[in-house]
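Holo prediction. Input below; ligand is adenosine monophosphate.
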Amino acid sequence: MNSESPTIMHDVAALRAAVAAARRDGLTIGLAPTMGALHAGHASLVDAARRECGFVVVSIFVNPTQFAPSEDFQKYPRTLDADVALLARHGAHLVFAPPAEAMYLPGHATTVEVSSVAEPLEGERRPGHFRGVATVVAKLLNQVQPDIAYFGQKDYQQTLVVRRMAADLDFPVAIRVCPTVRDADGLALSSRNAYLSAEERRQALVINRALTKAEQWARAGASDVEPLRRALLDELATEPAVALEYLAIADAQTLAPLVHLDRPAVVAIAAKVGSTRLIDNTLLPEPG
Ligand code: AMP
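Structure of the complex:
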């Protein structure tokens, strides 16, 4: 493992110059956009990028426009030194950590709005969230101009939104989606897990238990969604401290609700444990 420290850059002109130099050297450029407070999930994106790209950029930017006023923007964990140490261990070449003023110019007035896949689930519960995500990802893609950009399945709907945007706006980039990294007990790694007490963390495991049950039902050949939904709701109800926001069993491409498991499906869950909002999902292959 390369443990040389990555170069840290805060402004777009320096970033562009460094990426241009790497490109002149014939290197493939990879980008993993993050909000920092990095963990092994983020590291897996860097590892995937290192396997395919000669020059790996990781952006760290807690994007204010994807948080609603009531959400946790102010208290979101910011751990730049530890993040850079992790990125050094995983061989990232450049860390782009712009200040908010560099990302949002005075008088900025342009946003990117994706409809369809951005509308249900997170789109309903977090109005404006995907506008913030799509806008910042579009900016990062323009700033870095990577050949390949890496995202985690953990934020499944976000991967659909980014793919839709990149296709619709002709970004010359390949989008890769990396599997969700979990702790040994099954909890999906998330920067927000840092907010959980030990008790809440234990309670949160019910989310993964429900997803695992969905996978078992699919493997056993279940074809109707309604009994599956009831079984998952029963499982989730075993942990009354976990307040379910939604349980979706939907078409994996369109996110339209399914009646039968007759095509690739996603099971997506959002729930609050104490004051911490968690999301997780699993993909169910087409039966047969
Ligand atoms: P975030 O810093 O939460 O905005 O996440 C940055 C990227 O890392 C997104 O593409 C996430 O989907 C991805 N990511 C976050 N957690 C995980 C995880 N547990 N496994 C894989 N990817 C993840």
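The chain has a mean pLDDT of 97. That is the main takeaway for now.
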